[in-house]
């Protein structure tokens, strides 16, 4: 009798367990990909950086962003981005259900693997020496050649790796830890390019991206082992993980994926410029009449507008930037449409100048709080390059740290540089995240410098 009761009891337990397991699977499926598709939106979590996600000229960009957008599109979904401050917060937000997927190169670790499911886009990274590609200097081809060399690094994983490498080699590398908050990783790479320092260390993906800005750097020497990283989802999202894995296998050789890879890691970002067309005849370019006509609408010297065009396109109306900006004045497609440029007229010089001047008028209104007209011109140039949002952030930082928020040179320009530094772009006063500020810093200075030359050599 007791045996029969025990058997009956075990059978009931077994059926209950099966039923719970079945319900659990049904719940996972409902809460997983089906629920996301029903919602019509994939919420991705990421971090601000030059290789993942950033805002450029008012548009969302970044390699991880573009590729995750391609994945969402394959599922018939729109994408919504939520940004965390760091990796721990990224993981916390995912576990709390604030997003569906981490679209960031999340390093493979045992702790992460136990709590998350790695899936989708997979990247192999390692750290490299960034050195100047100079025919006068023999390049380093082996880590043992670092002995006796001065290497400048930022605190954290780059410094730690170099210290460990120094121990492995028995000592001798002259390691300089640059913990100055005003110096970013991009600054160190820039210093290598200019020959101010000889060596620094960074991840190979960051090095590859910066090699598109600096043609004279060598990033071929690895100083660490390969590190796997990929996207990730919660453990209760097996269908989403499966879809991401299947998509990645199919799409790695697709034209869209290849185009995104080239855009960020291969396409040259710096345009080669030509000299003044004819000093003797007083011509800067073939488009001087357009600059003279439309500069009056914004009360600018036409030579300043010409200097802006030179910097943007080298006076080439067919120019297309790495980011997709087009035409003589290099307006982003969305901006051009908003300024009334007809579709298909991007290469029309007059349409480009006319739309650019309307855009400058719009920026001027956004920066009307700057009382000095000449000073405001500097801010307008900066916003033309970066987008108004990043300029607002730099102004807020300048104000917070005791600088003049309505003065560009040596004040706000200093903080646009720091927008590539995590400590600053995650500051509560910043609303637009990471930005490669050195580009805008040089942009304003280059245009004004060229404008001075134009004023000196070309009659008004």
Helices and strands, with pairings:
Layout: H1 2-39, E1 41-47, E2 54-56, E3 59-61, H2 63-74, E4 78-84, H3 87-95, E5 101-107, H4 110-115, E6 116-125, E7 127-132, E8 150-153, H5 157-168, E9 174-177, H6 185-194, E10 199-203, H7 204-211, E11 217-222, E12 227-234, H8 238-251, H9 255-265, H10 288-295, H11 302-313, H12 333-338, H13 349-366, H14 373-386, H15 388-400, H16 408-417, H17 422-425, H18 437-457
Parallel strand pairs: 1-4, 1-5, 8-9, 8-10
Antiparallel strand pairs: 2-3, 5-12, 6-12, 7-10, 7-11
Helix pairs in contact: 2-9, 10-11, 10-13, 11-18, 13-14, 14-15, 14-18, 15-16, 16-18
Index terms:
460 residues, alpha/beta, D-Maltodextrin-Binding Protein, domain 2, 3 domains, 5-stranded mixed sheet, 12 strands, globular
Architecture overview:
This protein has 460 residues and is α/β, with parallel strands linked by helices. It has three domains: 20-121 and 230-265, D-Maltodextrin-Binding Protein, domain 2 (3-Layer(aba) Sandwich), CATH 3.40.190; 127-225, 3-Layer(aba) Sandwich (D-Maltodextrin-Binding Protein, domain 2), CATH 3.40.190.10; 288-457, Lysozyme (Orthogonal Bundle). Helices cover 49% and strands 15% of the residues. The chain has a five-stranded mixed sheet with strand order 4-1-5-12-6. Helix 5 links the parallel strand 8 (150-153) and strand 9. The longest helix is centred in the first third of the chain and has 38 residues, at 2-39.
N-to-C SSE string, H for helix and E for strand: HEEEHEHEHEEEHEHEHEEHHHHHHHHHHH
Summarize the main sheet.
Answer: 5 strands, mixed
* Percent of residues in β-strands: 15-25%
Terminal residue distance: 111 Å
Q: Judging from the principal axes of the Cα atoms, what is the shape? A: globular
Domain module count: 3
* Overall SS class: alpha/beta
As residue ranges, the low-confidence spans are 21-30
- By CATH, the architecture of the largest domain is named Orthogonal Bundle
Helix segment tally:
18
């Amino acid at each position: 009798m007791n045996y029969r009761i025990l058997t009956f009891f075990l059978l009931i337990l077994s059926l209950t367990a099966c039923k719970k397991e079945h319900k659990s699977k049904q719940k996972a499926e409902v809460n997983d990909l089906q629920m996301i598709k029903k919602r019509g939106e994939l919420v991705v979590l990421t971090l601000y950086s030059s290789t993942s996600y950033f805002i450029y000229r008012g548009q969302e960009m970044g390699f991880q962003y573009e590729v995750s957008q391609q994945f969402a599109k394959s599922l018939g979904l729109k994408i919504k981005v939520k940004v965390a401050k760091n990796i721990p917060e990224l993981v916390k937000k995912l576990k709390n259900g604030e997003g569906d997927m981490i679209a960031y190169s999340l390093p493979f670790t045992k702790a992460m693997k136990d709590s998350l499911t790695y899936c989708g886009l997979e990247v192999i990274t390692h750290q490299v020496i960034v050195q100047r590609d100079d025919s006068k200097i023999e390049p380093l081809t082996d880590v043992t050649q670092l002995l006796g060399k001065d290497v400048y690094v930022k605190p954290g994983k780059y410094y730690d790796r170099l210290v460990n490498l120094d121990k492995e080699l028995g000592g001798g590398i002259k390691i300089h830890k640059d913990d100055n908050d005003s110096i970013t990783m991009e600054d160190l790479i820039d210093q290598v390019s200019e020959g101010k320092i000889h060596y620094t260390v960074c991840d190979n993906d960051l090095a590859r991206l910066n090699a598109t800005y600096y043609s004279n750097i060598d990033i071929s020497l690895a100083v660490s082992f390969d590190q796997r990283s990929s996207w990730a989802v919660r453990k209760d999202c097996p269908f989403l993980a499966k879809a991401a894995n299947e998509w990645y296998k199919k799409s790695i050789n697709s034209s869209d994926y290849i185009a995104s890879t080239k855009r960020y890691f291969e396409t040259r970002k710096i345009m080669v410029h030509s000299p003044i067309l004819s000093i003797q005849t007083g011509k800067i370019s073939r488009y001087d009449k357009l600059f003279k006509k439309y500069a009056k609408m914004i009360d600018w010297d036409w030579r300043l507008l010409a200097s802006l065009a030179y910097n943007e396109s080298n006076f080439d109306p067919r120019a297309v930037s790495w980011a997709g900006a087009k035409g003589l004045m290099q307006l982003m497609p969305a901006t051009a449409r908003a300024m009334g440029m007809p579709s298909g007229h991007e290469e029309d010089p007059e349409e480009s100048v006319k739309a650019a001047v309307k855009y400058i008028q719009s920026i001027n209104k956004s920066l009307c709080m700057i009382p000095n007209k000449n000073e405001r011109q500097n801010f307008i140039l900066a916003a033309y390059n970066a987008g108004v949002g990043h300029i607002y952030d730099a102004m807020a930082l300048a104000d917070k740290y005791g600088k003049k928020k309505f003065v560009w040179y040596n004040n706000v320009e200093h903080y646009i540089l720091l927008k590539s530094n995590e400590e600053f772009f995650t500051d509560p006063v910043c609303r637009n995240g990471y930005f490669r500020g050195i580009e805008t810093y040089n942009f304003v200075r280059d245009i004004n410098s060229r404008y001075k030359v134009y004023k000196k050599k070309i009659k008004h």
